[in-house]
Write a structure and sequence with these properties.
By secondary structure, the chain is mainly β. It is built from 10 helices and 103 strands. The longest helix is centred in the N-terminal third of the chain and has 13 residues. The N terminus is likely disordered.
Amino acid sequence: MLFIFHLLQICISSFSYINDQTRYSVDSEWDNPFYSYGVVSKLCPLGAKYYMYESMNTDIYYFLSSAKLLEGGLFYLHYVELSNSREKIIHHLYYYQENQWLSNEFIFNLEEYEGLWYQQYINYDVNSKLLNLEMRWGDHKKSLKSYSFQEFKYSNINFVIGGSYQVLCHYQLQVVHPITKYMLNLKTFPGQLLAAVSVYERDREDAWDIFSEIKCSDNTVLLLGQLDMKEFNQHQIYMIENQNQKYYKVTFWAKIQNDFDPEVDHKIHVLRIVANRFTTDFQATGSNSFILSYMYYSEQKQWMIRIQYYSYVLPIIVQFTNNNDPFQKEDLIFVQNHSLLSTWHFIQVEYDPDTLNFHLINKKQDKKIEKRYTNVNQFSNIYYRLFFGGSREDFSTLGRSFGLILFYDCNNENIQCHYSCQTCIGPSQNQCLSCPEQKNRIYNEVEQTCRCKVWYSEKSDFTCQFVTQNQVTVSLIDEQEEQDQEFCKFGEFSFDQMCFQCPSASQHNQVICAECLMRPIDWVLKSTNCKNTYYLFESSNNFLKKRNDPEITNIQFLFENEQLIPCKGCLLCNQFQDQDCYLSNYKHLNQQTYIKCIDNYMFENGECFQIRVLKIKNTACQNNCKYCNEELCYVCSSQTQYFINSKGQCQQCSILHCKYCFQYNQYNIKENSILNDAQNEGQVNDDYVIGCALCQQGYSFSFKTNLCIKNKIDNNCLYYIDSDGDTICYATQFELLENKFQQITNCQDKIPNCEQCIYNLFDLMVCLQCKVGYYNNNLNGLCISCNEKFENVQECELNNKMLQRYKLETIGYLQQLTQDFYGLSQLFRNYDQVLITQCSNNLVLDIQSNKCISPCSNCDICEQIDGEQQCLKCTTTSDEYIDFYSQISGRCYQCPYPCRFCLPLDSDLVHKYNPYFLLNSTSIKQTHKCLLNFNNNLTYIDQRSGLIQPYNNETKLKQKFISNSQQKSSSIFDGNFILQKSISNYYYIIENMIPHQENLLNDYYALKNYTATIIVEADMTGQGFVELFNITNFHIFNSLYKLKGSHIAVTTVYGVDVIVQNLTIRNEIAKNFLTINFSSDFQISVLSVKNVYLYESTIITINNFVKNASIQMNDLQFKNCTFQDSQFFYFASDKFNKILIKSVKIQNCTFRNSLFINQLLQNRNQQYVIEEFLIEDSFLDNSSIFFISKSQDMVLIRSVKLLNTFLNNSTIISTFSSVNLETVQIVDTIAIKSRIFYHQFESTQTFFLVNQLQCQNLQLNGTNILQLISLTQNINIDVIIKYSKFEKIDQIYSKGKISDNFFFYIQSATYMQIISQSKMM
């Protein structure tokens, strides 16, 4: 804390910073001898605001500070001398005391001065009576000059620091002091200054730490990726924002162009480090802190590395001209192998005070170059500029590339590799040799990458993290294996609820019979064929499609006797639609099977047999032939490296700088291969030699030396040199034409749209080269527009089947050489096809069909393979290198992470897995089925979804990802975490009202289950309302609703499982509290309803059950409730097969014209069970507790209690199906005009069974305990009542039917039995 106080005092009170190269003047009272006055300085000529250019070989003086009495003259002067003669830095300090000048010199070495803080103080020691003149610098270094004094008497002074200063001669002092002998011109100090005014001793001591501090910053990443430059003056400038002090380091990767002309000198500018930030011509000291160039000298055939740098003698800035830098140093390093520079190599340039270090490391070739230059003095306090690839004035003859450029202002650890690599051979992410430990990365030896571990994602801070979103927690759990006979294991297909192996399901880096893998549930029913194979293309991640050859691979399979058998040479067919469709011997799917035979097969005896064709073996051409026929080559693999010789074979063109070679008879030049490729009978092969028909630009062929030599003359002519050494022009401009054998290079005015032409045999002008967009007419030698022949074509050309278009460029050469004219038939012999060379409108060329077709999409390299466009390299961004891509017909797409190869799923299979998913042009990217697993030890392919899921190799268990939201209400979020981890279960917790819900099932194919859970207490503020759409599961746990308007609505298309557990409803709530549309399963556990008044309400409504749904309700409690014209449960469906209601208690409730449970079902086979049902202290008026509509199964009612209840025109249970009523107690109850149990029937298959009915203390007025009514005449059922007890039953007779006063009223019962144990009291 004390240090902070002192620092603040120094910065504010004692030391005053002065703007660069400005004058600072202050009046001060020096009345305390313990105060110090002086200046703190740092010389940094290139760090100053304004540059001061100096001359060499002179002494230079800079003013620092001075002081004078306000009522007197000058008494203190301090300046610094840069002495060239003495090769020292000298501080001159003069002090006037007691009528005399004190003269002092503080001398420093040149190399120990620039860029360092120097402190100078004047103070008095009153105890010792000493005047101290003090210099401090560096690591507590000090120099002190002391003088005795008699009395301290100064008070008011003017203290000046900075700016320029002039001292004139004074006659009184010229004998005493040197400054009085002449005029002294002091220049402005080029650096930083601080005024030390009234400085305490303790502040001077604290200044040691402040003015020796070296500021450091983190390394600066200038380029993370790769920068490619072409030749010439292309360059990149980086400005360093931090001001460096005495250190800099630059590291980067570099490589130059691999191909170069060894006959030409080359200069490649790599790096220029510039300290002088204000110059652009680099003609001042500091403009060339460091220059790195690569040089090639053609005469010596030698590559060199040239290093240039400056090192000052005096710390001054000097301007120079013609790159004649007096401070520049140079070093040349010989390079034995050009590949050292043409492959990625790491470079480090480091300046540590007085030392310059250069390191070049080529890890691929295990080569290293290290240079250390000592006694190097460079300026400090610099804003550096880095020029990569040279500057605007620097021209490079070859291309160069750079990667991973970093700048350091302190000696921090080098970053040599991409952040994902630990060691590497280059700057990119795919040049790793190893990965950093414990960074969640895995090394791929083939790709040389360090990707994030599977299921981890690359974050913006270059780390691999598991969770991708803060609002969502992602968990990994074991998958519970389900018995699903429709979906077998990956690589199997299903039939008749059994699983069978697909044919050659998959092999290493290829996918065979994708048809079976893509549709395993019905492949055997639909096609049972395998037409395509996908294989990995070379070392890329791309898979190409190859059509299966029926000669090699079986295409059609048949399923017979639960076995998959090949049908060689056949295809399934429809006898009513296909021709040549025959009944076979096979029993595919145990049925008669019709087949047809493919090409080269014939039908015989119910099968297809191959037709045997006798093949004549042709002798292949020699190497380097691209197209061969009858032992003669027509097209070589390269038209420039090879030519077709007199034997019809490809021969290497061995003449350096030759573009096209040809063969000619040295005794008869007219026998040559320019216009004649055929071999003449009787020719002597030894008579033929190789020449050059067309040299590279800037070269001409010499028949004398048989070489392409560099042109030495420029006469607007293409020429060759004959065997006598004479120059022969064979192509020139029309106005320079010497004879008609010559080719004309400016034919635009002679033949429309023609660039080069020639006179032919009949003195007619024939075009040899049309301008772009036109082609030669082989009939008349004119030019015709490509658009007249093709659509969407930009360029085309006349060519022959050997693709020797280049030969037309040499006709003038041939005519001049042979002194013969050629007719049209000779010139264009066999040139009978017009080939498209460039398409327009972004179309691509299909070479096989010679058509312009739609291009590949998202593709870097596209080719025609098997008559179909296929992408050899999909386009990726720098951030996507961890992902895999697949392609179909040249259209690239990204596979769901982390699948290696995938194909699009059919829409019916997509909706079979996730029926909610909405398919569109964007979302379809999610619905690609993986066909090649990422890693069998880490992942597996889920057969239902086709997506990759995690696999625990240690436990041998399949796993899956689930996610839980942590938000109180849903918000729009990035769902990439679902896409990346193929999350199948999403759990969403609702703790309050939900204004917005994400349609996750609609948006994300991977999701199979979407569970919304309510945990809410809506009794404090606001209304609790929830509206959900398209979820698979809905839960209510431990929730309380009591405010008016609270309601829940769940609507789903394909069914939702509902679980309600520990739900409490109080006070007045919404008329329709809970509505479920399209429920699959509905469960309620612990439902508490208290103090609720309902009017014209339906509390729980379930509409449109899905097939085979179920309802289970347990522990329902109702207290102090009033139902007016309402119903609590309403089930409007006939598609479920089970209702279980257990432990229902209704206490102190009133029902007026209401229903407790209303079920409207029609003719379904449901199971209906009611157990432990209690009504106590309640009132029913024109109401019913259970209304159970028609069902074809039995209704089981067990343990029913009706206690102290009043019924008026009401019913407890109303049924239409067979009833088994067990253990019923009706006690202390009054019933008026009611039917406690009411049953209607219309089938003889129904029955009504009452077991253990106990009635006690009842008052019945026009009421039946049990009433059974037939809805159809002459229908009788069995009714059994046993083990019953009736005690204290009062019946009040009233007007009406006599049947209204019976305990039991039963109509049309065939057999009625009352067991003797029943008692009537």
